[in-house]
Structures are given as C-alpha cells and as structure tokens.
Amino acid sequence: MAQANGRRTFLKQATLGAAIVGFDLASRSWVSEAAAAERADAIPHLDGELLTDAASLAAVAEDYGHIVTRTPQAVLRPGSVQDIVKMVKFARRHHIAVAARGQGHSTYGQPLVDAGFVIDMSTLSQICSIRPAYAVVEGGVRWIDLFQATLAQGRIPPVATDYIDLSVGGTLSVGGIGGASHKHGLQIDNVLELLVVTGEGKLVSCTPTRNAALFNAVLGGLGQFGIIVRATVKLVAAKASARTYLLSYDDIALFTADQQALIGDGRFDYVEGQIVAKAGGGWQYMIEAASFYSAPSTPNDTALLAGLSFNPGSQAIADVTYFDFLNRLAPTVAFLKSIGAWYLPHPWYDVFVPASQVNAYVGGIVASLTEADTGQGPVLIYPVKRAKFTKPFFRVPNEEVVFLFDILRTAATPEIAQQMVAANRALYEQVRALGGTRYAIGAIPLSQAEWAQHFGAAWPQFQQAKAMFDPDHILSPGQGIF
Ligand SMILES: Cc1cc2nc3c(=O)[nH]c(=O)nc-3n(C[C@H](O)[C@H](O)[C@H](O)COP(=O)(O)OP(=O)(O)OC[C@H]3O[C@@H](n4cnc5c(N)ncnc54)[C@H](O)[C@@H]3O)c2cc1C
C-alpha cells in the first residue's frame, strides 16, 4: 500500500537539461539544483546517466504498439551493471517503479512506466565472449548483433524469432518462439546462466542448478522478478545456407495436418505457416519450411516434400545464406518504415491454441476475416511441441501439440486500434474457453484476476517468486499483473 501511495504522489516535475543530483523526499521528484538537494536523498554515483529531459522521456513513453502512452519521470542509461544495482536499491527505498526496456517492441505498454524510471538497456550491449558451446552477452544486446558475431565463428543460438532486432533481455523475459521451436523449444529453454539484478537490488548469478528458483522465474517471467543484465546462451553449429519452401493449401485441415506431420518427423529445421490474402479475395494457408545446409551437401527436395498435400505446383523453393534467412524480415521492415506503417498502432493478437481446437477456432475466424481486420498485417499459425517448453511461467494449453496463432494487426488510426483491441479481447475469451492461452507480447487487456487464471497452477509459485525477488512490486508494472 505504501508503494501505491508513493506512486500516486510521485510528482511529474521533469527537470530539464541539468544533471540530476537527488530525489526530493517531500515532493517525490528528481532534483537537479544543489540547494534543493539538501532536502533530497542524493542519487548514487553513476557510471552512466539519469535523464529527465522531455526528449529522453518521450522516447520511452510508447512501445511498438503505440496504443498505450506512459511517460516516466526519468530514464537511466546505465554505464555499468552496478548502476542498475544502485538505482534499483534506490528505487526500492523510495517505492519508485522501474521498467527495463530492451528494444521496446512490445505492443501494449509492457515496457512502460508512468511514475518511475525506465532503464534503457541498449547501453548494456556488450558481447562479452563467444565459445563453441555458448555466448555470454549483456542484457541489452540485440539478437541480430549476436547472430552476426557467432556466425563469424560458425556457431548460432538454436532458436531465432522471426524479427531479430529484439534485445536478448526482452525476448528472454517473454519466451522467444520461432520456426525452430518445434525442435529446440523457446529461446528461454536455451539459456545456461543469467546474471540478474533482483527487485531487491541484489546481483545474483543463477543457473538451472544454482539459485534455480530465480533462474526459472526470470526466464519467461515478464520482467517481474529481476533485470537480466547478462545471459549465457547456448550455441550450436551453424550451417552456411537455408533452402526455403513455401507450400500453399486451400483447406485448413490439410494444412494443419501437414504442419503437424512435419514437426512430428522433424524433416525440416524450421516450420512455420501463414494465412495469406488471395488476390481475388478470401484466404489461403501457406506452410513456410526451411532446411539448413552447407555445400556440398544439399537438401533432397523430393524427400522433404514427400507425402504432403499442398496444392500441386504451388511450391516455391529458394536458397539464401543462413544470415539472410535469419534476417529475412529486413526488406519488409524497411518498406514498412518507408511508407510509415511501421510507426502506426499495432494491436497484435497472440495466443496458443490447443491442436484439437485449431481447425474449428482458426477456421471460424478466417471465415469472416477481412483485410480491414488485419490492417494488412500478417497472420501466423504454426505448431510446436509442449514437451519442449521447460519454464514454469510460459503458459501454453495442456495438449501435446499447441499452435501459435498471431493476427499481427496494423491500425490506421487510434480509433481503429481501440476497435482491434476490443476484437482481440473477444477472440481471447473464445480461445480461453477452449483451453487456449495468450502469448504475453500482444495487445489483450487482462485484469489481475485474469492474470492469475492465466498462470493457473503456476500462480502460487509466481506470487511466491514475486514476494521473494521483488517484494515491493517495483519491477515492470506495465504488464499489469500486480
Ligand atoms: C516485428 C516483430 C516481430 C516479432 N517476432 C517475434 C517472434 O517471431 N517470436 C517471438 O517470440 N516474439 C516476437 N516478437 C515479440 C518480441 O519477442 C517481444 O515483444 C519482446 O519482448 C521484444 O523484445 P524487446 O527487447 O523489444 O523488449 P521490450 O518490449 O523492451 O520489453 C518487453 C518486456 O520485457 C521487460 N524487459 C526488457 N528487457 C529486460 C531485461 N533485460 N530484463 C528483464 N526484463 C526486461 C520489459 O520491462 C517488458 O516487460 C516480435 C515483435 C515484433 C515487433
């Protein structure tokens, strides 16, 4: 309760231009003048900087969703891990909310805070070391930079998200799923060690066997328990090239059956799928698969496509370098930026659907889906195996195979964005009734009671971990869980 009062009275008095020297206990605001500092608690010496100018605050007041706006009172640009330790302790002492921000590519305010400070993790972006079996990186490193560095040594993390301009700390806080997840699980299932600043301001190293409770809580923990300042991520041998296969279907049952067959026999390294608009209207299903290889060995197309029911002649096969495959969204992103669509609101709908329900649920949505509903954003659908997921707070339906289903909407106006959020909410209620779960990157408003329902049997453990690692509830309030 003290924290809630503190947040309410934390005055919005941004100090323009001057260096911050303290936190005024009476007005609950940051102060710059030496005189004012006399009645203030001096901020600790920092290797980096604490900014309160309007431009710095505005830069972290929204995320990629552009639906929620929350302007913080300060932005910490840490110059060291110790800066985060000191400032989290400081925040705890004064009940100030704190949110780490990676690349800000959430869609519904997850990395935002309106009465507290944001930690801009992009200043902690060192790739510390690369060994054959693992890489040690700071939490603000972008996956794209890590991939370039490890590929130079013939190594690669086993799972990549579709878009790779995301921070390591950001995707490890949510899960990190991609076309290789049917074989290797999520990015959070491929971490060997973390260095975390907990909500108590303690710097703790953890692994699956040392401080395991913290390790298991933070991976997929939605920023609730600590700030990932360093991660040791698994590496495997990288191939030089990828051969990609696009296969079209008109029938959802044939499409999802083939997808499940492919993840069952594991013949491809990568399996995803999309629902794409047909030129003359309506929708079509498309498997996207890839096989990684290094010459002189090449994939056997006949064997890879054997027994599949795609529309005859629809297959499109191409060869690209492995890095271009990983970075395949770059041209699309450049185009979307050039027309301004990248900066519009993105009310994304992201859920997991039990395999037993996927044809009826998704087929039902597609029956009335229009391009106005998606804003011409992509619709993704692909299966993964639940058994590959090892972290307790990453919640998926209780079936052997579950489908990720995303309607990655773009809204032309804020009003349309609100309508799309309402549509997300309605679709979520339907999928939840079928045993579905949300993937917490999207724009689906949830009450605190519904978050408890989301975590289900893991909710007591989630609450316990919160009490243990962030007892004052200062971390990542933008998720809306506590
Ligand atoms: C174009 C696009 C494509 C995407 N494709 C995929 C995909 O294929 N697969 C997939 O799984 N996801 C995908 N995502 C979603 C993405 O993985 C998540 O939104 C992810 O959280 C974004 O990372 P970020 O660095 O931008 O995190 P942010 O949005 O900055 O933060 C996300 C959350 O994590 C917390 N956080 C950030 N850094 C840290 C840290 N170091 N320690 C603790 N907490 C932290 C924040 O406080 C916030 O709660 C995509 C997103 C976009 C915009």
Structure description:
This protein is an alpha+beta fold and 482 residues long. The chain has 3 domains: 2-122, Uridine Diphospho-n-acetylenolpyruvylglucosamine Reductase, domain 2; 127-238, Uridine Diphospho-n-acetylenolpyruvylglucosamine Reductase, domain 3, CATH 3.30.465.10; 241-449, FAD-linked oxidases, C-terminal domain (Vanillyl-alcohol Oxidase, Chain A, domain 3). The protein is built from 17 helices and 22 strands. The strands form 5 sheets. Strands 18-15-17-16-20-21-19-22 form an 8-stranded antiparallel beta sheet. Strands 8-9-13-11-12 form a 5-stranded antiparallel beta sheet. Flavin-adenine dinucleotide binds at residues 63-64, 99-106, 110-111, 121, 139, 161-163, 166-167, 169-171, 173-178, 222-223, 227-228, 441, 476, 478-479.
